[in-house]
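Anyone have tokens for ABC-2 type transport system ATP-binding protein? Sequence:
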Amino acid sequence: MTSVLLAQGLGKKYGKRWALRECTIDIPAGHVVGLVGPNGAGKTTLLKLAGGQLTPTTGSITVLGGPPTSGPAQLAKVGFVAQDTPTYAGLTVAEHLRLGARLNPGWDAAFARDRIERLGLDPAQRAGKLSGGQRAQLALTLGLAKRPELLILDEPVAALDPLARREFMQGLMEAVAEHELSVVLSSHLVSDLERTCDYLIVLAGSRVQIAGEVEDLLATHHRLTGPRRDPDRLPADQHVVSAGHTDRQSTFIIRTEGPIHDPAWTVGQITLEDLVLAYMDERTPAHRRPALEVQR
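Reply: yep, here.
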């Protein structure tokens, strides 16, 4: 299967600080990918590397088979909506569409006009007078109308109220279904990821902690609850992701491919939020949270 994004040993350093390091991932095309992690984990850096706005310090990255900075043809394949859903306050909605047509050789003017009309946006309205949700929808329209193969969104709904956020995500998923886009979506809101994403990447400590299809990740992770026990006493094929203890009880989230036979444990399913928080928990020793990729 074609890779939409392939990174090998990818790293980016600002001065003496690594914003991203040792990043190795292979994202197949045709997915809506959720990229999640705490502030400072390297999410925006990874997305800007993929979008050709930054160059790596170490390692390599290809997007849709080519280097992100290889030229206009490569840039035309990728749509990018940044965290602040950038628009020009002094330009009208119509002027944004005309600018998009001038800058993008594959611009779909009919799609852009139709989407603006369906959203109820006034083409004569200046962007600075739009609500936050309306500006986000305008930015999404600009990203979609260039007809990219990959759409990158860097926390586009972070500042929106719940209704505007829901409308934005509905519009995104309609576009994905209609145009068969690949999408990489960075978000702090796990609820949005649960509704939209079928592939997950967790970044923490500037490194990839886990990557894979959501269905497979949830199938290979379990919650164990039982008498207090040292994690080193668990079988070798049960990799501890996170651990919690009381005086008498231990609770682990583990990754394993095999069955769990120990009758002392109560085995429970985990949610996507449980999975994300477990891999973001810096209290768990790093050697127990190996970076891994789970694919079919």
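The chain has two domains: 3-214, 220-294.
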